[in-house]
Design a protein that fits this description.
Number of domains: 3
Strand content: 25-35%
Number of helices: 7
Largest sheet: 7 strands, mixed
Strand order of the largest sheet: 11-10-13-14-8-9-12
Helix content: 25-40%
Order of helices and strands: HEEEEEEEHHHEEHEEEEEHH
Distance between the termini: 65 Å
Radius of gyration: 25 Å
Amino acid sequence: MANLSSRSRLHVAVASTILLLMFAMPELGAQSLPDAGYVLSINGNWKSSSSKNLLKQFQSLPSGARVVAVKPITKESVIAIALFDGTTIRNRCKAGTCQKINLPITNPSSSTFNRAAEVAKKPEPSFKDRVAAAFVSLFHSTETYFIPVIIREEATANLREAVLESSSGQVALGPALKDLPNARYRLIAKELPEDQPEASTKSVSLTIDWNPNQPAQAKAALDPGLYELIGPGNLQSWVLVTSSDRYPEARDSFAKALELSTQWSNEVDPASSRMFLRAFLATLSKNSAESIK
């Protein structure tokens, strides 16, 4: 009787283990693959095998997804996708037909990319993490980084998106002004909260004597943080002011983002590239704020 009881308990234990594995397997199988890239630009109707909805600009595309054009398909149906390996895929439809795009499969265990939700868990996010977070912000809050039409159509030089260094209470503004001609500029610096850039409540007036041959002379008193610079004649840009100890890393990371956006010049308009750079600066600002806490 004791042996039967032991055998019964063994059967129950085995059965329980099998049931646990059966219920656990779907959960393991449902583990999502890392994203392969993002929609840089899009015209016409396109869908991904990962979603039932039409794709939108700046939307993420998971590893292994298949992207197809859907009716009505015209010669104007075109999509450009930026992959995290640095390449860009462009597909334009012809004569009512369009080739499918099969995105590469990335191994989650070897990928250096993590979704934006995981970025906050890391004290020092990788460049890919920051790019991902910038695209997620663009997709969910496009209007926050929107470039007004009047600035999009402006052909003259403008302020630049940039990372600026604050040293002894003075900020070197040269990287933001480098495209402007010699003149005195009256600017407004609107402080932008890193979590809600659209909720700006504080601003500072600046008067800058700018000489392209003496960029180091252009300085102003600004606290570290994210700012929108606004000047006469539709001058506008976003800048991130950092302390001297954080400046080198932030400057180098932003330089990579600028180089990346330059590679997209044939796929997106300059305004979209600037929107990405603004979202990237906001991500850098948030990372800096979190590392201080």
